[in-house]
Design goal:
This protein is of the alpha+beta class. The chain binds fe (ii) ion (FE2). The site of fe (ii) ion has 4 residues, from loops.
């Protein structure tokens, strides 16, 4: 489905922006389903908080458990010191993850899309495994920032094979925390790795190359329905959403079954519920 010019651009930049990849109906269906999942959420016990600013506060067990489940994670700023929600739950959720594509029929239909399978093949994935899915809410006023990172830090394979598919479910602008990327940055080193260590889940520095800044970075302001696809080594980030508009997005991460999936990755699927491809 990609033109030669798009393949060349992919190789140069490490990402592609594909407007109108998903129809308005498909996008609306995913938004509605996401809100219904949150609506059906029964809150009890300690609330898991998701924050990339302070990973130590991530409840390791909740994260590990979400590898093959559908769990909601909350904004840090939405919960007080005692773990009580400060805003209604539908405004407090940071994201839902990480097996929406395997557990939820609406998400499965959106994810196992023949067009997406074709795109993955065009980008070099020979035997795709859909490892991880996330619905990111980026709530008005409290939607947290996501620091510069590379997705290969979280889903390491040898050789590197992870590709991220990022679908805008609402218009993404600089005001509501759109993606920022470093064009061409996928040719740089993997700076960090996150995963299982004897001391729990940790982020470890692998390379001192600084994260990009200034003119090396570019905001990707895109309309709802746009797919941004990027190389697992491409540095990307998003700012805090201080606007009154949410910025919902759905991400899907794929690896090649021919590459060796790292045993230290936080996300592991059991033999009785293995990761599958687009079929
Ligand atoms: Fe990412």
């Amino acid at each position: 489905m990609l033109t030669d010019a798009q393949i060349t651009q992919w190789q140069q930049d490490g990402f592609l922006v594909l407007p109108d990849f998903k129809s308005a109906q498909a996008v609306a269906a995913l938004r509605e389903r996401s809100l219904a999942i949150v609506d059906g959420l029964v809150l009890n016990g300690t609330l898991p908080v998701f924050s990339t600013r302070d990973r130590q506060r991530v409840v390791d067990a909740a994260l590990l458990d979400s590898a093959d489940q559908v769990h909601c994670f909350f904004e840090e700023d939405a919960i007080d010191a005692e773990g009580r929600l400060q805003v209604p739950k539908d405004q407090a959720v940071n994201k839902i993850g990480h097996a929406l594509h395997d557990r939820d029929p609406v998400f499965e239909h959106f994810s196992r899309d023949p067009l997406l399978a074709e795109l993955a093949r065009d980008l070099g994935l020979e035997r795709t495994l859909l490892m991880q899915s996330m619905l990111i809410f980026k709530q008005p006023r409290i939607g947290g920032q996501v620091n510069w990172h590379q997705d290969a830090s979280f889903l390491a394979t040898d050789p590197q094979s992870v590709i991220g598919f990022w679908f805008a479910l609402e218009d993404a602008t600089r005001d509501n925390g759109c993606l920022w990327v470093e064009p061409g940055g996928h040719r740089g080193p993997l700076r960090e790795r996150y995963g299982r260590t004897p001391h729990g889940l940790k982020m470890e520095r692998l390379d001192d190359t600084p994260w990009p800044s200034g003119a090396a970075t570019r905001p990707l302001e895109v309309g709802a329905g746009t797919l941004v696809v990027f190389d697992g080594l491409l540095p990307h980030a998003s700012a805090v959403n201080l606007s009154a508009q949410s910025r919902m997005a759905y991400t899907l991460h794929a690896v090649d079954a021919g590459a060796t999936y790292a045993a230290r990755n936080w996300l592991q699927r059991s033999a009785d519920f293995p990761a599958r491809g687009f079929a």
